[in-house]
Amino acid sequence: MSVVQISEELDVEKYGKDKTAVVHFYADWSDECKHMNTLFDEMSKQSKYSQVVFARCIAEDLPKLSLNYKVSAVPTFVILKNLKPVDRVEGADPESLDKKLQNQLNSTANNTQPVDPKEALNEREVSANPEFKKY
């Protein structure tokens, strides 16, 4: 699968809905981003990622989208499941990106859901430890 170029905010919803997606926020002037763009293109063609949507956007051209996904530096990769961020890689770290994508694909295969970051910490503690008492 080829890499999709995100040119407006609604493109993320268009390409990432009901899927696992990874969005590369980059800048044309960054050498690290140029290097990662090449690796990102190669990753998108690997059969192990056939179920992943690979997308990229110029972070400075879409400031609201960058802010929405808390992108403060480039390159940044945000991994989404059903449009919700579940993991990220900041910086030029292809090994970490590969590992985190594999983890997300494995969790999909095992039918596990990512933890909702809005879920109350107290609730997670109770479910993880039945002896824990809520006050």
Automatic annotation (TrEMBL):
Region described as Disordered: spans on this chain: 90-135
Biased composition (Basic and acidic residues): 90-101, 116-135
Cross-referenced InterPro entries: Thioredoxin-like_sf, Thioredoxin_domain, Thioredoxin_H-type-like
Start and end residues of each Thioredoxin domain: 1-106
Bias kind Polar residues: ranges: 102-114
Domain of life from the UniProt record: Eukaryota
SUPFAM superfamilies the record matches: Thioredoxin-like
A Pfam match: Thioredoxin
PANTHER family in UniProt: THIOREDOXIN, THIOREDOXIN-1-RELATED
Name the record gives this protein: Glutaredoxin-3-like
Gene: LOC103513771
